[in-house]
Amino acid sequence: MDHYNTLMKNYGPPAFNAVQGKGLYLYDEAGRAYLDFSSGIAVTSLGHSHPRWVAAVQAQAAELTHCSNLFGIPGQQLLADRLVTQAGPGRVLFCNSGAESNDALIKLARLHGQYLTGAEGKRYTVVAAQNAFHGRTFGGMGATPQEKIQGGFRPMLEGFKFGQLNDIESFDKIIDESVAAVFLESIQGEGGVFPAEPGFLQELRALCTERSVLLMLDEVQCGIGRSGHFFAFEKSGVRPDAIGMAKGLGGGFPIGAIWVAEAYAELFQPGSHGTTFGGSPLASAAANAVLDVIEEEALIEKVAANSPAWHDALNALADKYPNQIDCVRGAGYMVGLALKPQGHNLKVTAAAREKQLLIVPAGHNVIRLLPALIATPEQLNQSVTILDEVLATLATAI
């Protein structure tokens, strides 16, 4: 039986069946090992099957997997405390994914607008950025001005405007009295790895404060240590009003979260939002184990220490293959190589897989390199060696 006859066709046919993972390596049915610089699209922050994480999940599964948020969950309460320690005074709401965390932020914006005006429907617009990606729910799609995301699903949820990332004037022009919040990725991921510049975030923070607008940052892909900081926006020194998290927080187990600053934490009241599975005992155990390992193994410090030499080596590839690489951008262990000619990102992704390196294509003809936080300098160098071989082979076809 062809199993893919019973699966929807929203994904293309897989290149291979993944059956095992260990550390930085993913294995297919034939036992072939792939150096995994996709990390389940920035999810497996500790690599595959980290023993500390596995032990925590197994132990919790034997005790209590689910009970709903009708009851107190000690692990969830501990996790919230730890995230507040990282983000600042405020409160945390748990959910199941990045898309759900972003939807919760959009709901927060509408509650804020209602608080400011005293009525619904008067101030609810969210200003996002061109080229953004905030998920595939109707809320997330509304905040994602990409035809490949919105096409076929219109009409979109109303109430969104779009500025240009790193162009403060474009935001200044459209943040009027209809706007309740600004919503940005600290580093645009799926759109092609475009970081928000520190100076831009500082100016935007001041603008949002001046106009009583929430500054909400999407850290779903770039957060939880990937940038060399716990949150990617930390480099700018700003403090947002709300943060969306997911992906790397669970290390492979589904969990999402939003943190809301203390000044706005009362906007959600009993009955205003809910989730059946969010912050379950098992999900919370997985996320607490991720934070334990990040702390115990000083992984954020290692990302910050190891990434500059890796970035230098990738930039050397750009110098070596100017007909294929336009530029290198990103932060820490979230790097994008902007390629040329158009469509070359798909060719490089496929060719790298044949040489047992897994990478992820993105918008603007980019390949994403998203190694787990445990990646060593040797493994980072190995990724560069394989890409060098791939680009050398493909050079003859350009």
Summarize the structure.
The protein is an alpha/beta fold and about 400 residues long. It contains twelve helices and 17 strands. Strand 16 and strand 17 form a beta hairpin.
Could you characterize the architecture of this molecule?
With 398 residues, the protein is α/β, with parallel strands linked by helices. The two termini are 40 Å apart. The protein has helices at 39-42, 51-61, 74-87, 98-117, 138-142, 147-150, 168-174, 198-210, 281-296, 299-320, 344-354, 377-395, and strands at 18-22, 25-28, 33-36, 90-95, 125-129, 160-163, 179-185, 187-188, 194-195, 214-218, 242-245, 256-261, 325-331, 334-339, 357-358, 360-362, 366-369. The chain is globular. It folds into 2 domains: 3-49 and 298-395, Aspartate Aminotransferase, domain 1 (Alpha-Beta Complex); 53-296, Type I PLP-dependent aspartate aminotransferase-like (Major domain) (Aspartate Aminotransferase, domain 2), CATH 3.40.640.10. Strand 16 (360-362) and strand 17 form a beta hairpin. The protein contains 12 helices and 17 strands. The strands form 4 sheets. Strands 4-12-11-10-7-5-6 form a 7-stranded mixed beta sheet, with helices on both faces. Strands 1-2-3-15 form a 4-stranded mixed beta sheet. The protein has a 4-stranded antiparallel beta sheet with strand order 13-14-17-16, covered by helices on one side.
